[in-house]
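Appendix B. One record, verbatim.
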Amino acid sequence: MSGHRRLLIAVFEKQLILLKRYWLNTVLMLFGVYLMFAMVFFGGQTVGGNSIDSALDTVVIGFFLFLAASAAYFDVARSIMQEAQWGTLEQLYMSPFGIGHVLGVKTVFNIVVSIGLAIGLLGLMLVTTGRSLTVDLVTIVPLLVMTILPAVGIGYFIAGLSLLYKRIENVQQLLQFGFVGLIAAPGAVQGPILVFLPLSFGSDLLMRAMTDGTRLWEFSLLELTALVGSSVGYLVVGYVIFGRFVERTRKRGIMGHY
């Protein structure tokens, strides 16, 4: 068995054990997002009657994307913080694969789990509302992966800040409200500026794919290239800044101080 394959199996096995050990936290997060959606849906029906129907598809897709982005963001930020608190983050530097490779494998696992949770919530919301959307996984999954990559990059940035400045939980929570605004931005902002906003351009493409039935290959090459470039750019920048924060934390000798 090759070393990279052993690393992949070891990281996935560890993440599955952690997921099983802290399953209640995952369930409560999923329940919390569903509860917010139920309050918006049933509250909107009570106040606005049938007028909410015109915006219901947008609300469902928005919550679907919000859960995927939040789960990916918190998984990255929290897992790195846990490694630091357990005193194992420095040990990752001693890995023959390098910390970048190890964190990359963990990020892949986190993205897979985030997408699985989001698709589960999407099913619950469609059953609750009785709506039907186009859920073509060949189109939805690649678009969703590209859309949440900026959230992963932001998660790396926040993890780096947490290592250096320790207690910044309030900033972590406030960013969630920022995600809501970025996901809803295509409804208020149009044009090339969407490409430069994290989550927003991907949110626009997902809306078109799930409401209009647009397939992946029916988007223009320019749109797909812009989405990939923007998403990978945010991920790379977030990871590079994380690396700088880690180096600064190590030089100060405060890696394990909490």
